[in-house]
Amino acid sequence: MISHEQEQRTLEPAVLAARLRGVSHVFKKKRALDDITLDFPTGRMLGLIGPDGVGKSTLLSLIAGARKVQQGYVEALGANMSSARERNGVGPRIAYMPQGLGKNLYPTLSVFENIDFFGRLFGHAKAERERRIHDLLVSTGLGPFRDRAVGKLSGGMKQKLGLCCALIHDPDLLILDEPTTGVDPLARRQFWDLIAGIRAERLEMSVIVATAYMAEAAGFDWLVAMDAGRVLAAGSPAELQAQTRTSSLDAAFIALMPDERRKQHRAVVIPPRPEDNGKEPAIEAEGLTARFGDFTAVDHVSFRIPRGEIFGFLGSNGCGKTTTMKMLAGLLPASGGTARLFGRELDPQDLGTRRRVGYMSQFFSLYSELTVRQNLELHAQLFELPAADIPSRVDAMATRFDLTEIMDGLPDALPLGVTQRLSLAVATIHAPEILILDEPTSGVDPVARDALWQSFVDLSRQDGVTIFISTHFMNEAERCDRISLMHAGKVLVSDTPAAIVEARGAANLEEAVIGHLQEAGGGQAVTAPATSDAARSHAGANPNASTRRFFDVRRMMSYARRETLELRRDPIRASFAFIGSLLLLFVIGYGFSMDVENLPYAVLDHDQTTISRSYDLDIAGSRYFTERPPIADYADLDRRMRSGELSLAIEIPPGFARDAERGRPVQIGAWIDGAMPSRAETARAYVEGVHANWMAQAMREKLGPRALAGDFQLETRFRYNPNVESRKAIVPAVIAMLLLLIPAMLATLSIVREKDLGSIVNFYVTPVSRLEFLLGKQLPYVGLAMMNLVTLTAFGIFVQGVPFTGNLAAFIAGGLFYVIATTALGLFISSFMNSQIAAIFLTTLATMLLAVKYSGMIDPVASMEGSAVLIGAVNPATHFVTIARGAFSKALGFAELRSSLVPLLAAGPVLIGLSVLFLKKQAR
Amino acid sequence: MRASNIWRLGVKELWSLVRNPALLALIAYAFSLQIYVAATAVPLYLNNAPISIVDEDVSSLSARIASAFYRPYFSAPKVISLPEMNQRMDAGIDTFALVIPPNFERDVLAGSEPAIQFNVDATRMTQAFTGAGYVRAIVSAEVTEFARHYRAAEAAPVDLVLRARFNPELNAGWFSAMMEVINNVSLLSVILAGAALIRERERGTIEHLLVMPVTPIEIMLAKIWPVALAVFLAALFALTVVVQTWLAIPVAGSLWLLMLGLVFQLFATASLGILLATIAGSMPQFGLLLLMVLFPLQVLAGGLTPAESMPSAVRAVMMAAPDTHFVSLSQSILFRGAGLGAVWPQLLNLFAIGLAFFLLSLWRFRKSLRSRGR
After folding, report:
1. Could you tell me which residue, B24 or A612, shows the higher pLDDT?
2. Are the beta carbons of B42 and A749 separated by less than 8 Å?
3. How does pLDDT run across A555-593, given as a tens digit for each residue?
4. What is the pTM of this model?
5. For B51-148, which CATH class?
6. Residue B296 forms contact with A (CB below 8 Å)
7. Structural domain boundaries of chain A?
8. ipTM greater than cut 0.95
9. Where are the domains of chain B?
10. Are the Cβ atoms of B205 and A667 closer than 8 angstroms?
């Protein structure tokens, strides 16, 4: 086997896994990669090692094609990654697993559905896909969790699943970016066993891994040590050790660092802990329990931590460590048991206790909008340090945690190791007596990790701070005074590290811990991957066939299916869309009335005669006006109109009846509130009508039937809506508005959210094209909107009683074109927006304007001025308002609606075309 | 509750706003260019109303009627045939169509009262209403004037002198611009306050705050005041620079009284934003919830159509919305020059609603903090 393997590897030296020539990469001002030239041999296990923020991730994403090559030449499996065509060609042969636990997975989908999504993307047929998924699940031990939602998996399981998703298409190049960061020792071991098994089966596969674990790197074939965007050394682990004359890779790594970096490193020195001084313990837990529904996350956990001790917390992912720590930090109420800090029962409401405790969570939790200095100052102020002491305290923390040079930078731009130091500085700024640290060193490089640990030790031994820390690193666990090993909510063992190793009779702590975990039933046995020969013969041929095509329906459907599943898993979103839109249709269809009625008016009657009162009565009799108490004088008139109490004031002059009787010219004064012009216009028409009516009446009384004769008659026909009911005009228009607002918002956020949460990387590195991606994302929302169209229309007809007189097919066709256009509008917005807040604001602003102002709902587009005419003409809502009103009230069909249907049909494709243009297929 | 914490956490919110250039650009657009476009582009009353005439008479009177319709109220009337009329009205091209029958002029002069058929597309509510009155008045005036040359008509003994107060020319741009400012005020404040809370939750920093000696009420107030300040400044800019200076729209009342009202309004809408954020689990849900709330607020608060014309049930519900009171308050101050004596009830209502929203969201916020899962 071995000889065969070596033969294979020496046979094809010409093709390299990856080749880089003079590659540089710059983010804003920061230089991430500086003139890198490297050859990665094929068929090997290749490692990238180096401190945080030296460009390892950037390098990997460039090789994977997830990031745009700025300068230099990058070649992966013989393909030039700057060429879109070659990149697309080679894409299916590369698998990329980005940094971060399950960052490219979809948390609401199940394990099976996640792998299935990737399988479909690479175009496997159903039977083939299911067989592959089955094999992968069996070999990774994820079989029993096939239907569990990914969001509920532990970190280690997520990483294994990420690997399954990467392996589904038998890649020739597997790129893993810190795949085991934050993964417990047992799961980590299983993960590497799995990779080894796959490599034994697929000899030609190359694996490039970035890692912070030197113990892992020691097992690789070939290593590249990096610092500050440059390559320090490359070679096998043995070569690197020989070159630096060191005995371990850890030591070799430190020796390889440039002088100024190396100077920062000191071996961690732990002075012995002074004897217990007999005071009550700092932390005490008794039968501490946390339940979430049926699930018991923490099950009667008890421990005592004396003051000044460094207490380590170990265990598999998802065993309840974080929950326990949160309960002690007062973030979660305990479901049972007691926790005491300094002998006092924990009270989350007690702000005094919070001042004595510092907490650092597992995740990045600094304010990215504040600079490092601002972050420190804010926390110092919130902990109410005396204002005079704050600058000196901030400086002291900066010196202690080596932050002085980056005080005015933003934390987002800093490498993980530095942000962890900053988090620690923030957690200790108020000199707490207890520090609760949840995996503070995950993802931090060895040099930085030792520096952090020296700070912990100093805090414990010099300042007597009690430190409660969780970790997955065994060398860190060995530095603790005592450790507790947790599994499935229970403490398995609690003692000094040496005693645990001894009691177990194990070679080292790692063996002891893994032994305990396996005994407790943690992790499934890992079998060798059962990739059959048949599978391998299928591999390669199958995916390649579909990548050549410009547009592949299967890949589009893969995205569409996934989006639909996610939508179904989020019933709140779907029900908001359905029930919410019905509710809005009801409220607005019922409440939005453009009839002007019940206008409040009052009369200032100087005359007070029967005739003047008859005038008043005529107005009061109209349904358009509501009478208010008479006006006393001009001051009263002015006051009541100013306050908006009166919309109309009538003044009848003194001697009105007498003068009118004698045929002398008389004037009745009427003031209309002009604040709202549309209402004023209507009111004016009403008043004039009432006045003319009264005149005719008066003339008739005076002159008899002769007065009736006029010059002509104007027969007004209110077409389509003879009773001029607002409802008939409004309901179709509101349907049009809702089908713009909701689908656009859903579509926008579906993509901007992927950008925000990181799963967009799947789009970057898989062979899916922009058009396939956009259409796949759009399809489910078009479906949802069409269902919405049907329910809204039915509601309008049957509940709100608006008769539907036109051609239903024409209306539905118009609706389909319309929702394609409105969802495409959302896609368009999302193609250039990156922040969810700004995207929400823009979508709300744009859709509200298009729906309410420029759609012809109130004013026909023809009546607008300037730019509004253009907006109104290209606005899909304009055309659909016309179609909806035409189909509902005007009894129209395809022929009559053609002039609106055609532009609507064009709107969707135009918007999708623009989105394709704006959407980036690679990160910068 | 300590003012210093509220101040410091609030300053942090302002930083996050300053460091989001896309959002800043949108805010700048919403309070400048958009206001300008609203004032100049979409008049709310009769403007350029599309009208056609089917002239079967082809007389000097029918020509006279046709020429009486001109811009800006009406588009230049198109002379069309009867079948064309139905087609054009069906397609929504014309709102109005007059049919002048054959021999109309002769019949008018003969005193036989011929009839003009006047078709109105009643699905176009506002325009149909206002326009029909105009058309009727214009046609009457022309016919009467024409007839008067041939026989004397009696002068109307009682004259109606109609004046519009506060906006004598009924310039719709004034109204439109002001309403745009008001709409954007509530839009922006609800979104900013709510999204700030959701983002803090999605990023996990809220947890960080909870291990510090900071109380929920301080966190909430620190989310409200920066949003209120930012929107206040944007609105002040829009009113003084864009509305008063650029568009030269007169503001009748005291700008500072309006600003006082704005402070109350912002207190209410920012609290509403937080309330929505405590209900929504994620940004997409928040986005949808936002539409559910903002859409009726914009359409039913009285800025688009008069509040008193709505059914009483809807009016009663809308009394609980801050926008209803703010729209009424700002109309009174901006156009009618009303003073504190006239608008104190709206101020009081706004404050009461704001307080209710604030307390409700505080209660929900506390609850959501307590029940935080993993």
Report:
1. B24
2. no
3. 888 899 999 998 888 888 888 888 888 988 888 888 776
4. 0.82
5. alpha beta
6. yes
7. 2-265, 306-336+347-519, 553-588+724-918, 599-708
8. no
9. 3-42+171-370, 51-148
10. no
